[in-house]
Every structure is written in structure tokens, then in C-alpha cells.
Amino acid sequence: MFTAIYTLITTFAYIVSLPFLFFLQLKSKYRNAIPARFFLKNNPPFAKRAVHFHACSFGETKALEPLVKEFKEANISVITQTGFEAAKVYKNADVRYLPFEPLLWFWLKPMPALVVMEAELWYLLFYLSKKRGATTFLINARMSDRSFPKYKRFSWLYKKIFENIDYVYAQSIEDAKRLRALGAKEVEVLGNIKLLQKPVVSKTYEKQKPIVVAASTHEPEEEIIATEWVMHLKDKTTLVVVPRHPERFDEVDELLEHIAKREGLSYHRLSENPTLSGDIVLVDKLGELVNIYTVSDLVILGGSFIEGIGGHNPLEPAFFHKPIISGPHFHNHKESYGYVKGIKIVAPQDLADALEQKWQPTSIKASVDLSPLVERIKSVV
């Protein structure tokens, strides 16, 4: 009865949302994802019966690498276009967008195992996969301080979801406690598998001056960081700005060009001049952040200087032992921050002081053993 009612509600939501979806797909951010997920355009069911891995976006999909490579064949579904691009690099995997839930009734095929990353708790994905013979896994599961009360308000729904999840692998003991409180069973603490993700460097950049990277920034962080950089470091460093979302490249370009002209500084977009020779450089190409990290002298990690984003993963710059400055709003990545030694956390108004102090290298202080998880998945394949 619950499944029938849930399907009716999600189907109604789907029908009501159709006009909005038609307009939303015109945005570049959704140009491929919405037609594939909601209208199944160029998005047929998986052709081969293999382990089905599912992740949301770019970071989660990249983190699947050490697991995916353990299997001769794999299927990967994603939600976002950046996640799709990340999944395409896996030579042993077929890649699809995960359709909106009611469409899964006729899209989802039998599989030996379903392995879902982090918080992708789609009821029909787990229910239908299990009904069609899969052993189901939720891996790298986490439940932040901020999100847990919201999940508890819908505990009746999550209890139903967890009824269809056979094994849960949590990032921490606290995550495990919260997941059990929501109805999860067979919960084990494995750690954060993103610790196993070794950044792949695809290009070597030369630099003329020390590099300060404003990484994965959101509006208005570019202006906050650039303003303090101009006041304290413009004469002795290069500022490299890497916005989190590609659809903001033009908006950030306009801002940085204005600042450069006002201050008499050189500026260019990386897509127009593939060097770090300017005083200010906008990285408007995907997949370059790791390459930039390798030559950086300081990383200012975005998504953390404003409320509502929750921060971004600090593990990649810490892998290269780069000094990291972060804002105080990193609740979505609290566990990852705990794995990194040496991050300097400051309020936006204190960023200036942090820029002028001695920059200390960071290091990763934890490890993860994936073998128990791999063995359990292989045991059901």
C-alpha cells in the first residue's frame, strides 16, 4: 500500500512539474540531465547485468573509482551533468542518468547488487532493485549535525527506505548512530572512501609568482576573496579563481575583469589563455582544479564563507599538502575536515589577517580499508 501511494504521489508531482521542466532544461546546467532523467532522452535502461553504482554529482562519482575498478563490468547512474562527465572516464562502466522515481518501474532492470553513495535515498530505487533480486548497499553514508533534525521529521519515510537497504557503511560512529535512529540496519563504520581518491594530474602549469587559489567558490565569495587579495597580496601573488558551477563563469568573468581594470592588473580566462601568467586568472574549464592545486601556494576553500552551502571537500588540496584557509560554514563536510590536519578556519572578516600570516601545510591523518566492502559486494555478484 505504501509503495502504491508513494508512486501515485511522485507521479502526480511529475505531471505537475512538466511545464517547469520544459523551461528549466533550457539552462545549460540542466540541458542534458533533465531530458534524460525526466523524458528518458538518450537514456535507455542498462544493457548488461552488472553491479549498479549510483552517485549524485562530480565528487561522489569520482570517489567511486576504487570500488568500480574492482569489477570487470559495472553500471553507473548519476543525477547531474558533472557527475555524468566524471563517470564517463571509467572504461569498464556504462553510464546513465537516473530517471525520476516513477519512471523506474519500467526503466530499472534486474541486477546482482545496488551500491548507492552517501545520501541518495530514493525509495523506489531501493525498493524496485531489491524486489528484482539485488542486494542493496548504502556506502559512505553520512548524516550531518544540521541535516539530521530535518531527516528525523520524515523518519516514517526513511524507515521505509531503510527496510530495503541490506547493508549500510557509515563514515563515522556518529553517522552510524544517526542512521540507526532513522531505521538503518546492518550498519558498519568504514570511514570516508573519498580518502582513497588519489587526484589525477593531467597537466603541469608553470607559474611566475606564488599562486593563491580561490577554489569551488559561490556568489559572493569571489568578491570577498578578491577584495582581500587586492588589499594584501596583489603585488606578490597571482589570484586564480575557480567557481564551483560552470554556469557562473560569465558572471564571475565580469566581476574579475572589473576588479582587474580598476586596480590596473592583468587578467584573463583560462579558456582564452591556457597559462597562469596574469595577475588574476579565471579557471573557466572543468577538470582543471587538481592541476591548479599542484602549483598552488595557498588554497582558499569556497562554499564555506557564506551560509547555506555547507563547504566543500578539503581532501584534494590536503593530498598535495597545500595550506588551506576555510570559512566557518562547512557543516556538510565536517567529517572530511576532521581528516585534515592544519586547516585554518576563519570568519570572512578575519580573512585579511589569515592571508598575512605564515601559511602552514596540511596533511591527511586517516586511512580506509575497502576490502570488507568489496568482498561483500563480490559475494553476491
From TrEMBL:
Residues forming the catalytic site: 60 (proton acceptor)
Gene Ontology BP terms: lipid A biosynthetic process; lipopolysaccharide core region biosynthetic process
InterPro entries: Glycos_transf_N (IPR007507), Glycos_transf_N_sf (IPR038107), Kdotransferase (IPR039901)
GO cellular component: plasma membrane
Residues passing through the membrane, by range: 6-24
Main function: Involved in lipopolysaccharide (LPS) biosynthesis. Catalyzes the transfer of 3-deoxy-D-manno-octulosonate (Kdo) residue(s) from CMP-Kdo to lipid IV(A), the tetraacyldisaccharide-1,4'-bisphosphate precursor of lipid A.
Protein name: 3-deoxy-D-manno-octulosonic acid transferase
Provenance organism: Nitratiruptor tergarcus DSM 16512
